[in-house]
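INSTRUCTION: Work out how this chain folds

Token vocabulary: learned, describes local backbone geometry

RECORD BEGINS BELOW THIS LINE
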Amino acid sequence: MFLHIVFLLSLLSSTSHATVQDFCVADLKGADTPSGYPCKPPANVTSDDFVYTGLAEAANVTNIINAAVTPAFVAQFPGLNGLDLSAARLDLGPGGVIPLHTHPGANELLIVLQGHILAGFISSGNIVYQKVLKKGELMVFPQGLLHFQIAVGKRKALAFPVFSSAFPGLQILDFALFASNFSTPLVTQTTFLDPAIVKKLKGVLGGSG
């Protein structure tokens, strides 16, 4: 028994002085790799690296979708590096819409702070799950599934999405189809849309082909 106690005490003594890496604040001057940015030297880390104020102000929503998304990803908020976490601010003017899109690298949790937002996603079984969310309500969007948000009524809306990755990724369906060089014949063939509609939408969103 005495030997067991001595062994445990020696083990605790050897591990208590081991270095634990609590965080890895991104050195944005380094290369962005699939595993993240390199760490800033600990001596150069300050409290400001763990605080981000960029979501405090409303964004300009004067655009085709009457909405704006302000990111707080690792490129804006270096303290997120390696934590598998990020956020954004979602400003919606009256009737504003975030078109169908997907985040291939993260789940999303939407927190509504102002107004009413019709939000929903489409499952891989082609079932639509949607709900009008009010202040204080949340909705989750599973990773990789198409989803959307629309401001309901004549009021502006505000929400904060939180992601399960510092690099959630983004692909907007309408932009992929109509703001790219995906040719009109191929879009027509793969979506069954009328060529005239495809060309019209490409004209609106700036696509070619």
Summary: DSSP finds four helices and ten strands in the chain.
